[in-house]
Design a protein that fits this description.
The complex is a heterodimer of chains A (180) and B (355). Chain A contains five helices and two strands. Chain A is mainly α and 180 residues long. Chain A has one domain: Transmembrane di-heme cytochromes, Chain C (Fumarate Reductase Cytochrome B subunit, Up-down Bundle), CATH 1.20.950. In chain A, helix 2 packs across helix 3. The mean pLDDT of chain A is 92. Chain B starts with 10 loop residues before the first helix and ends in a 15-residue tail after the last helix. With 355 residues, chain B is α+β, with helices and mostly antiparallel strands. The radius of gyration of chain B is 25 Å and the shape is globular. In chain B, helix 2 packs across helix 8. The relative contact order of chain B is 0.18. The longest helix of chain B has 25 residues. Classes of the chains: A mainly alpha (180), B alpha+beta (355). The interface between A and B is large, with 48 and 55 residues.
């Protein structure tokens, strides 16, 4: 196959794959640190916070790039419900990529923990409040599981495009030639 | 272009590819579940530690899951500058830094009688102008009963074991440190006041000075007030809240003080084992004074919604090879997450609706 399907820009692809790794790492670190009392707990927390802020910065950058560059059109043969699902999933991804770090930061602020990220002291973004902490913490936790579920659906859909529909959607992000 | 091409794939091939995708998704879910500890029920999670602290009737909602009974205070830490030789943390530079703290009793019930509180606690948050904080939660015994967080869990389980009345005895037989703690618990006097108790970090931490030199330390807050022991027979007759009343009255009369003494480990000292005291001749440095100026009931006090996580440390201090601070941090977070979701069970008493 030698289709010249339009692809995401190299910057967009780089952002996608770097963030994919980062976000997966965040989700595994998140559930992992909640499950251990060993010294690794502190190491995981100390990765989770700066990585979360890094993802927030990258997500904002990515949103700006997406705004400017747009996305390659979906294949014309794609059924309407599938197109809608693709659009909504992208919306959900952007929402979660920005909301999750903000919820984490806000949750620490509401608990009045010092938010120190890679040696930098970040200001609190919400007031100290136990009730607010409880709400933000529950949201952070719940949305983390939603995020992981969304990634699984995304992975399945991407592979469905790559291996079964073979319509160039996967390659638009993978940047590789369609494989047989 | 871009017509769906699956028509060109043989059905068997489509089935195989769908199966491959399903397997990948299942593998990802399994890896996630394993990381979360859902596939390994034997893993000691912070939630299990916190659960093990609950009394038989379940935890008291809205309160800390251990050291549930406490009272807040405000004060300051007056650093004398001597600590600068050990740590570059701003808190050791000569100056006065605001403190939010809490006196407390070990135990899961906020209603416990003060006379039954064998282990008393002092928690502090010291803030410095550079935005950094030092949080610490200390207790009055000179040693900790167990050497590993896992042992603490096993001890809690043994204590709660109704089927085996010998469970604690068996645990003690294999954990000799418990006897040393028991000797302290059985002989140390109950003082009249929190202001007369010495509070010890027990856990060790590493300090780094401006020259980049690392040292492992423990610390104690040594009271200025002389200790007055309550005769054991009299202890039972005391008001259930005598400590709260006493410290409130005492601080209302005059600020109460403790000297912060850092003890520096020699090479080879047991830095990872809080059941083992360091030899008495180790270098001690007096680095400042804790001054408690104002007592505030916890319900509306500034300490209620703070987590005195002992791993919140300023630059110039970090955790050591002692396994407890990490375990405590993980468990305190669970306790905090649970109790902050239960504030209706422990409301503020100053209603905002009041005229």
């Amino acid at each position: 196959m030698n289709r010249a399907s339009p692809a995401f820009s190299p910057l967009q692809r780089a952002l996608h794959w770097v963030m994919a790794l980062g976000i997966l790492a965040m989700l595994f670190i998140g559930v992992g640190m909640m499950s251990t009392i060993d010294r690794v707990y502190l190491a995981l927390v100390n990765i989770h916070k700066p990585l979360g802020i890094a993802i927030l910065v990258l997500a904002v950058l990515r949103l700006l790039v997406r705004w400017r560059n747009g996305a390659p059109p979906l294949p014309t043969g794609m059924p309407a419900p599938m197109r809608l699902a693709a659009k909504l999933s992208h919306l959900a991804f952007y929402g979660l990529m920005i909301a999750m770090p903000l919820l984490g930061w806000a949750m620490l602020s509401a608990a009045d923990y010092p938010v120190v990220v890679a040696g930098m002291h970040l200001p609190p973004i919400v007031p100290h409040s136990a009730e607010l902490h409880a709400t933000l913490w529950a949201a952070h936790r719940f949305l983390a599981f939603c995020f992981f579920a969304l990634i699984l659906v995304h992975l399945a859909a991407a592979l469905y495009h790559a291996w079964i529909r073979r319509d160039g959607v996967f390659e638009a992000m993978a940047g590789a030639r369609a494989r047989r | 272009m871009a017509n769906p091409q699956n028509s060109s794939l043989p059905t068997a091939s489509v089935v195989a590819r769908v199966a491959a995708i399903a397997l990948l998704v299942i593998a990802a879910v399994a890896a996630f579940a394993y990381t979360a500890g859902w596939l390994t029920p034997a893993r000691l999670t912070p939630a299990k530690i916190v659960d093990s602290l609950a009394p038989p009737g379940g935890p008291v909602k809205g309160y800390r899951r251990n050291h549930a009974k406490g009272i807040c205070f405000a004060g300051s830490f007056e650093a004398n500058g001597a600590g600068v030789s050990l740590s570059r943390a701003a808190v050791f530079q000569t100056g006065s830094y605001p403190v939010t703290g809490r006196f407390n009793l070990a135990g899961p019930a906020p209603t416990m009688a003060d006379a039954t509180g064998r282990v008393r606690g002092l928690s502090l948050r010291i803030q410095t102008p550079d935005g950094q904080e030092w949080r610490t939660a200390m207790i009055n015994p000179p040693i900790f009963p167990v050497a590993q967080p896992q042992d603490l869990y096993a001890l809690q389980r043994a204590t709660a074991d109704k089927n085996d009345p010998e469970a604690v005895k068996k645990f003690a037989a294999s954990h000799p440190s418990l006897a040393a703690f028991g000797a302290w618990a059985g002989s140390a006097p109950f003082t009249e006041s929190y202001a007369e108790d010495q509070f010890n970090s027990l856990d060790s931490f590493v300090v780094t000075n401006a020259q980049g030199e690392d040292r492992t330390i423990r610390w104690s807050f040594v009271p200025h007030a002389p200790a007055v022991a309550i005769p054991p027979a009299e202890l039972k007759t005391r008001d259930p809240n005598f400590l709260f009343k006493e410290i409130s009255d005492r601080v209302a009369q005059a600020p109460q003080k403790w000297t912060l003494v850092l003890t520096v480990a020699n090479p080879g000292d047991p830095t990872a084992d809080p059941t083992k005291a360091w030899p008495a001749d180790r270098r001690k440095v007096e680095v400042g004074t804790l001054v408690v100026n104002r007592i505030e009931p916890e319900a509306d006090g500034p300490c209620r919604d703070l987590n005195f996580d002992p791993t919140v440390l300023p630059t110039g201090m970090r955790t050591s090879d002692d396994p407890f601070p990490a375990a405590r941090s993980a468990a305190y977070a669970v306790s905090y997450n649970r109790r902050t979701a239960e504030t209706e069970s422990y409301p503020h008493t100053h209603s905002k609706e009041q005229p």
